[in-house]
Specification:
The chain is an all-alpha fold and 485 residues long. It has 20 helices and no strands. It starts with a helix and ends with a helix.
């Protein structure tokens, strides 16, 4: 199969997982938000910070190092597996010991018990990291997509059952723990690789010499992505953090999963072209255009329908989340571009430069946080938007030097999608000024938004739209044919 066909197939399965898997998680989140209180989501938001940081340490940058290494072998796989597992156990023990102090710091006693249970996910994830990495290296996204949807379904139903029976915040913790457990077990049994009693110091040194810079960069980035959870949870309240968390959970599944999907597909493909700058630039350009085509359209649509979306789906008790959601959609628009530009540095072997850029950007973020935290949560998100724009220019600075893809060329490629998304936003958002009930408003907005999206893209015939339409038609025909048989 050609590289192009592999990319299309990989994207098809990534899209399938995104639509169905994340769609299921989205529906589960809505049901849980109607049952539980904002404070419950705020407490889980605090948990998320410590688990996300620990998870970055468990992975330790080995996954990217292994994907990039063309001649990886059995020693590398086993060394990575046992190292990840050891890190997982050590970090869980550390979280277990520190959980009482964390609970005291945030003045939430229940965090003590929740962290001790939720931290088990670190050990569970470490068992399946090598299997997931090998599937990514082979551009096999079908297996993870199917497993993800199955895990989301079972864990979601379990969490809803717990919430209805009064388990409160525990239902959210067990949702994550159950999902990752099912994911790890099924990935283990569907993958052909099994660990053997092999550990190589040379393999560790080689992978870690490249991966440790990615690890530090990843840690810095993870802290940055979750710093607002810590600050809001500490200086405002768990309830306020709940409003922010719920708003972020409406937009993050789209921006983060588009970025993750593009990253999973682009990194192994671009790695094979690391020494061919002409083809590397063309592939990179395609990934840039496709990521903004999807992300701009979806996030602007969510921002436009934020008010009726929240009030209809999760109720008036979440009204404070509306403005947070609209602003977070703006800050999330550039997220896939950040990932792609940093990926290019790693592909070209500049993991040290990647680390330097992460340090520089976070030094810029500190004064923004210190100023805005004294004002309000909304002011903090405005600061996040300013930082996101600044971050884009910093991340993309070296792209011109590495593959000759300048700011001007990038702007020309991005502009059509920005115009389309803003046009769609203005059309859909204007409907909120009509005096109708929110359910009717949401339906009208969704229909008008989809019609506007199709109309504009049919007029301008953007290649990304045509390619996506072809993929969707092809996949629909395959499903229909299988159903008829």
């Amino acid at each position: 199969m050609s590289l192009k066909n592999k990319a299309i197939t990989s994207f098809s399965w990534t899209l399938f997982e995104g639509v169905f898997g994340q769609g299921l998680s989205f529906i589960v989140g809505i049901i849980l938000a109607r049952i539980l209180e904002p404070r419950d989501f705020g407490i889980v938001g605090i948990l998320t910070v410590f688990l996300a940081i620990s998870d970055s340490l468990v992975e330790a940058g080995f996954g990217s190092a292994l994907i990039r290494k063309v001649d990886s072998n059995i020693k590398d796989y086993n060394t990575m597996f046992y190292t990840n597992l050891s890190f997982g156990v050590i970090l869980y023990v550390l979280l277990f010991i520190l959980s009482p102090q964390i609970a005291i710091y945030f003045d939430e006693p229940i965090l003590n018990k929740l962290l001790k249970l939720a931290g088990l996910v670190l050990i569970i994830n470490s068992f399946s990291l090598i299997q997931g990495t090998l599937l990514t290296k082979k551009l096999n996204f079908k297996t993870p997509a199917i497993i993800s949807i199955f895990a989301s379904t079972l864990s979601g139903l379990f969490a809803i059952y717990l919430a209805y029976n009064g388990y409160g915040v525990w239902s959210l913790v067990l949702l994550s723990l159950t999902k990752q457990s099912i994911w790890a077990i099924l990935l283990w049994f569907t993958a052909s690789w099994r660990p053997s009693l092999i550990y190589s110091r040379n393999s560790f040194k080689e992978l870690f010499s490249f991966g440790y810079k990615l690890l530090i960069a990843s840690l810095i980035n993870t802290v940055y992505k979750n710093i607002y959870y810590i600050i809001i949870g500490k200086y405002f309240s768990s309830k306020s953090l709940g409003f922010y968390t719920r708003a972020n959970q409406f937009q993050a599944p789209f921006s983060s999963n588009i970025a993750l999907g593009i990253m999973k597909i682009s990194f192994p493909i671009l790695s094979t072209l690391q020494d061919d700058n002409i083809n590397l630039k063309q592939k990179f350009k395609r990934f840039i255009r496709f990521s903004v085509f999807l992300n701009f359209q979806i996030l602007m649509m969510i921002a436009a329908i934020a008010k009726p979306l929240i009030l209809t789906l999760i109720g008036a008790k979440w009204t404070n989340s509306i403005i947070y959601l609209q602003l977070l959609c703006v800050s999330g628009m550039l997220y896939p571009l950040h990932i792609l530009h940093l990926n290019l540095l790693v592909v070209k072997g500049y993991s040290n430069l990647n680390l330097k850029l992460e340090i520089i950007k976070k030094l810029i973020l500190i004064p923004i946080i210190l100023i805005t935290v004294t004002i309000s949560i909304k002011a903090m998100i405005y600061g996040l938007i300013i930082f996101s724009i600044t971050e884009y220019f910093i991340n993309s600075f070296y792209t011109k030097k590495l593959i000759g893809y300048s700011y001007k060329q990038q702007f020309v490629d991005i502009l059509p999608f920005l115009v389309v998304s803003i046009t769609t936003f203005l059309t859909v958002w204007s409907i909120t000024f009509i005096n109708i009930d929110f359910k009717t408003m949401l339906i009208i907005q969704l229909i008008s938004g989809m019609l506007m999206f199709v109309l504009i893209n049919e007029i301008f015939r953007l290649s990304e739209y045509s390619e996506l339409k072809t993929i969707l038609i092809k996949q629909t025909k395959k499903v229909w044919f299988k159903l008829k048989k």
